[in-house]
Design a protein that fits this description.
The protein has 602 residues and is of the alpha/beta class. It folds into 3 domains: 260 residues, Aconitase, domain 3 (2-Layer Sandwich), CATH 3.30.499.10; 137 residues, Aconitase, domain 3, CATH 3.30.499; 156 residues, Alpha-Beta Barrel (Aconitase, domain 4). It contains 18 helices and 25 strands. The strands form 6 sheets. Strands 22-21-20-19-23-24-25 form a 7-stranded mixed sheet. Strands 4-3-2-5-6 form a 5-stranded parallel sheet, sandwiched between helices. Helix 9 links the parallel strand 14 and strand 15.
């Protein structure tokens, strides 16, 4: 077996597991964050459930550590009150990013399992542990049962041969991988990365790359633990560990070999992490702001790199520089090493530890037309506000902040550039309705949205994440998807959404599913779904089905056609021309959950 198969087998009472097999996996650490935590608690209470093992259950408040939004603050306090009653440990707003705390505090170790409402829980691949981001119902089930169902994914092996170029950072490695595989070529795969120079990567560098596995659409990106990482984890856990390694004869669905010498410093252009290019091609693009931090690049090594560039320099006039260490321990180490003084003297704002810009809950919002360069992992349009976000390494971000435009550390000008702000338009708010009928054969008007990689921020923007009432969610559906901003206003109860590849890429937010239920959408049909989104939809009893390439063409489907979907029989019929095609039908787990009205139904 390979790494993920061994970990799942070890946690499911099986000697061996195979791809596509569905098993119940025991979870070693079960976590809810601040924005998802309130919904997890609501699910526990509303369904009369209890926490199975409080010692393995945690809250981490990292999206909005300042509680600067009243609804965030209310949700955090709601979780604190529940934690006191249930005996659950809270890593509160003064501690930092939950996934990093899990590693640094010994909640996870090589070969262990971890779930969180954080879609970057797969960062645990950096130490050879299994992590998975999940929605509110999944986490509630893990809290109540100690385990969750999971489909064993297919695996891919990537070997990066040769020597790593001296100017290529861990973030550049991640962006180069995204340029090769995009957001869906390895969709729902478990990925293992190998190579002589790969083995030399530090923990901080591995964290950066594993963190961006979510942006590649993978279940997880694994590195085999080095001696240094095993030593680190033994220190954090206080015990001798036996890490998991793939067998020599392990099976991989795909095997890829890449040449390290072809990797170059890169940036992701605004809109998508996989829409990337070399730094050289976008040099001198003016910026308004810069952010160093996030679960991808908020580690101590990242702070030291930034400080080496800022030392003796100033942030360009008019540029806002924000620095967010990943954990409070890293923040204090920055203070002890004098890095905080360097940052402040350069003109940067140093925030308390947390998630930073890509979460938009902490020092991350940008204004209309504002151009930001960030070390974050996501730059979906509208995710951090109304501006535009480039993604880059800490070195490039720091150099760009000094220059006033995108540049590299070896090309910082003597005189910084200036910038001008731009304007944008506010989105409108629309009313919603609720549709509750859930038949297994449905007929309705098709909304044909022929667009790949529609992410959860396009479906349901993170500025609405504090909403817990499904009745309020429908009005915000697709209001961040260009060309479909008026969808909620035009959609009718009984409609069917038909879309393309990787629908629901991105975060673990349940609202991106529930908003369709709020509008009365009967089902969603796509060529493929984001891994977390697929789970959320199944668990919420929202019918989702997939089709093979060419299916829609075979029935001459057009936007607005009336179609019939047989979920159990696995067919789609165009009523306009009576043409029928086969689609992938419900699996047994999907039918079981659907009949109960959701994962937590009785």
């Amino acid at each position: 077996m390979n790494i993920i198969e061994k970990i799942i087998a070890n946690h499911s009472g099986k000697s061996i597991v195979h791809p596509d097999e569905i098993v119940d996996v025991v979870i070693d650490a079960r976590v809810a964050r601040d924005f998802g935590g309130a919904n997890v608690v609501k699910n526990i209470i509303d369904n009369g459930l209890k926490v199975e093992d409080p010692d393995k259950t945690y809250f981490t408040f990292d999206c909005n550590p300042g509680g600067s939004d009243q609804k965030y603050a209310a949700n955090q306090q709601y979780c604190r009150q529940f934690a006191r009653q249930a005996g659950i440990k809270v890593y509160d707003i003064n501690t930092g990013v939950g996934t990093h705390l899990a590693m640094d505090q010994g909640l996870v170790w090589p070969g262990s399992t971890f779930v969180s409402t954080d879609s970057h829980a797969n960062i645990m691949g950096a130490i050879g542990a299994f992590g998975q981001g999940m929605g509110d119902q999944d986490i509630a089930a893990a809290w109540a049962n100690g385990s969750v169902w999971f489909k064993v994914p297919k695996s891919a092996k990537i070997t990066i041969n040769g020597k790593r170029p001296s100017n290529v950072s861990a973030k550049d490695i991640a962006l180069n991988l995204l340029s090769v595989f995009g957001a869906n070529k390895l969709l729902s795969y478990s990925v293992e990365i190998y190579g002589e120079d790969v083995d030399k990567l530090t923990l901080d560098e591995r964290i950066t790359i594993s963190s961006m596995g979510t942006e590649m659409g993978t279940i997880i990106v694994f590195f085999t633990p080095s001696a240094e990482i095993i030593s680190f984890c033994e220190k954090t856990t206080g015990r001798i560990l036996e890490p998991i390694f793939a067998d020599d004869d392990a099976h991989y669905e795909e095997i890829h070999e890449l040449d390290f010498s072809t990797f170059v410093p890169m940036v992701a252009k605004p809109g998508h992490p996989h829409d990337n290019t070399s730094v050289e091609s976008v040099k001198k693009t003016k910026i308004d702001s810069a952010i160093i931090g996030s679960c991808t690049n908020g580690r101590m090594e990242d702070m030291r790199i930034a400080a080496s560039i800022f030392k003796g320099r100033k942030v360009a006039p008019g540029v806002v520089m924000k620095i967010v260490p990943a954990t409070d321990e890293i923040w204090n180490q920055c203070l002890e090493e004098g890095l905080v003084s360097i940052f402040k003297e350069a003109g940067a704002m140093v925030s308390n530890a947390g998630c930073s810009g890509c979460a938009a809950g902490q020092v991350g919002q940008n204004g209309p037309g504002e151009v930001t360069i960030s070390t974050g992992n996501r730059n979906f349009e509208g995710k951090q506000g109304k501006g535009f976000v480039y993604l880059a390494s800490p070195a490039v971000v720091a150099a760009s902040a000094v220059a006033g435009y995108i540049t590299t550390p070896d090309d910082i000008p003597a005189i910084a550039a200036v910038f001008e702000r731009k304007e944008t338009i506010k989105a409108s708010i629309k009313e919603s309705t609720v549709y509750q009928e859930k038949p297994l054969v449905v007929e309705g008007r098709a909304w044909l949205i022929s667009k790949d990689d529609i992410d959860t921020d396009m479906i349901y923007h993170n500025r609405y994440l504090t909403i817990t009432d499904i009745k309020e969610m429908g009005q915000y559906t697709f209001d961040n998807l260009k060309g479909w901003e008026d969808f909620a206003n035009k959609a009718q109860s009984g409609d069917i959404v038909v879309t393309a590849k990787n629908f629901g890429a991105g975060s673990s937010r349940q609202q991106a599913v529930d908003c369709f239920a709020s509008l009365g959408i009967q089902c969603i049909v796509a060529e493929s779904f984001g891994a977390i989104y697929e789970r959320n939809a199944i668990n919420a009893a929202m019918p989702i089905l997939t089709y093979q390439p060419g299916t829609l063409e075979s029935i001459d489907l057009a936007d607005g056609d009336n179609i019939t979907i047989d979920m159990v029989g696995g067919t789609i019929t165009n009523q306009r021309n009576a043409l029928t095609a086969t689609i992938n039908k419900f699996n047994d787990v999907q039918i079981s959950i659907f009949k109960k009205g959701g994962l937590l139904g009785k």
